[in-house]
Amino acid sequence: MYFTDRGIEELQTRRGDEEVSLAWLGERMIEFVDLNPDLEAPVERFATWLARLDDED
Length: 57
Fold this sequence. Notes:
Layout: H1 3-15, H2 22-35, H3 40-51
């Protein structure tokens, strides 16, 4: 188990029944980067990965 898995599991446990839009998620990610600018690169990589999931490579 990776350290980050605990945070992901907490997210699933606490908010797993909620439905949110991708616009809402994008806004939360922007807020997170504003508060944690040193984590901009991994958040950007994650957002790009999500955006391109359906792309054929």
